[in-house]
Every structure is written in C-alpha cells, then in structure tokens.
Amino acid sequence: MRRRLSIALRFAALCVLGVTVSVPFVWMVSASFKPRAEVEEARIVPRHPTTRNYPIVLDMAPDPVTQQKLGLRFGRWYYNSFFMAVGITFLQVLTSAMAAFAFSRLRWRGRDTVFLLYLATMMIPGVVTMIPNFQIMVWLRFLNTYHGIILPAAFSAFGTFLLRQFMLSVPPALDEAATMDGAGPWQVFWDVVMPLARPGLIALSILTFLGAYQSFFWPLIMLNDDQYYPMPVGLLALDSTYGRQTELIMAATVMNVVPLIIIFITFQRFLVKGLQLGGVKG
Fold it and tell me: How far apart are CA 150 and CA 85, in angstroms?
C-alpha cells in the first residue's frame, strides 16, 4: 500500500511538472494562429484560427493593419543561427577532443594540475570575461562578423571534461598496439581513440549546437547590423521595431523552436547514452 501511494505521488508530481512545462509552449503555438484581436484572450483554442501570421513573418504577405510588408530578414536570421551554431559546434568539439586526448592519453609534467585549473574556469561567470573578450574582438576588428561570435565559443572546459571521461575508458593496450605498428600520437588520436569516443562526441555536439543556436547575449552586444543577427536577436529586433505584435512574435518563435525539437527528438537516444556513459566511465 505504501509503495502504491509513493508511486501515485510521484506520478502526480510528474503530471504537475509536465503541465507546468507544457502550458507556455501550447499557448505559444495557439497564439501564433490567432488574429491580433484575440491574441490577449486566455483561450487555448482560437475562435478564428489563421495561418496568416507565418507568411507575414516570412515577408510573404503584408501586415493586415498597415497593408505593408515588414521587411524582416527571417530567412537570413535562420541561416545565421545555423551557420554560427555549426561553426561553434565544429570548433568546440574539435578543440575539446584534442584537449581531452592530451589530458587523458599523453603523459607530461603538470598534466593533472593544468587540467584542474582548466576546469576551474567553469566557475568564472560569463559576465566577468565578457568585457575582456569584447575588447579583444574590437582589437581584432571582429565586430559585426561571424568570427566575433564563433571564435570566443570555440573552447569548452565542460566539453574537455566530458570527452576525457570517455577517453580514459579506452584501454591503454590499444594505444600501445597502434604505436608498435608505427602510429604516432596523431594517428592514435584519429584512428583509435576518436572512434571509441563517438557517443561522447555525439552528446557534446548536440549540447553545443542547442546552446549555440539559442545564443543571445553575446551576439546582442557584438552585432548591430541586422544581416548578421541570429534568430534570438532577430526576434528582439522584431519586437522592438514593430511594437507589441504578440501573434507575430509567437509565430516567429514557433519557427525558431521547431528545428531544436526535431534535432532533440532525432538524437535523443544518442544524447542520453552519451551522458550516461560519460558519467560512469573514467
């Protein structure tokens, strides 16, 4: 009886949590299909549903009030978000893998001390390093460029830690066998260690891409040209430029979230598997 009560309470708590998390998303989708006159109503199902908000955001139809197109660069913002996220993911996974290999497979004086110091950087808030990073980008003339967004995010202490856990689980005998066959450290890295660390690479790639795709504050201070805006900054520009048009903001947000949902659903099992293995190995 006590066990059943415990299960029932857990189930009820999960239901409450699920509803709490789902309601904002459901309202967002609902508001994206509402005309402007209904968007403030507390109704989940629109009385007069419309798909017109999506063509307006995509600049394929005029605004019903002004009868003019908004001139939004939604497609460009989509491209910018994906380009920046892919660039950050590629560089961060590559540098994290190489650093993890050096910290896990190579023996050199001070290795563990340097690794602990590197991990300690995770305790430094991002706002502390933001001004120095911004000043460096100014010196390099990387304002309003993709370089200024991608390069500061090319390194990750968390990514290094995660991949190091996987690489520590690779038997050293494989390195020795490859070395006896004439392989150097670079060949051992690419041909022996990297294939065996694939679950960790996939998990880190997903986490990095999702975080980079939603990046907001750093692009906001680095960019003032809307042709370089990623989607989150573009949504802010839409809200601040054209006033409170909630239905358009919700339509744009839905289109922004859909790729993330698809990616998460597609690679969910790889993400869970990678994080589980990384947590128990090493």
Answer: 8
Taking CA atoms, 8 is separated from 5, 17, 92, in Å, by 5, 14, 43
DSSP summary character for residue 106: -
The Cα-based distances of 255 to 32, 53, 55 in angstroms read: 10, 11, 11
Distance CA 160, CA 278 (A): 11
Residue that is written with structure tokens 């891409």 in the block: 209
**pTM of the predicted model as reported, rounded to 2 decimal places:** 0.84
| Neighbouring C-beta atoms of residue 281, cutoff 10 Å | 14
124 and 41 fall within a common domain: no
* Euclidean distance between the first and the last CA atom of the chain, given in angstroms as a whole number: 41
Same domain for 133 and 222: yes
Q: Residue 89: how many CB atoms within 10 A of its CB?
A: 23
**Model pLDDT for residues 28-78, shown as the tens digit of each residue:** 888 889 888 888 777 788 888 888 888 888 876 666 656 666 667 888 898
HSE (side-chain half, CA atoms, 13 Å) at 232: 14
- Domain membership of residue 29 as a residue range: 2-57
Examine residue 46 and state whether it is found in any structural domain, yes or no: yes
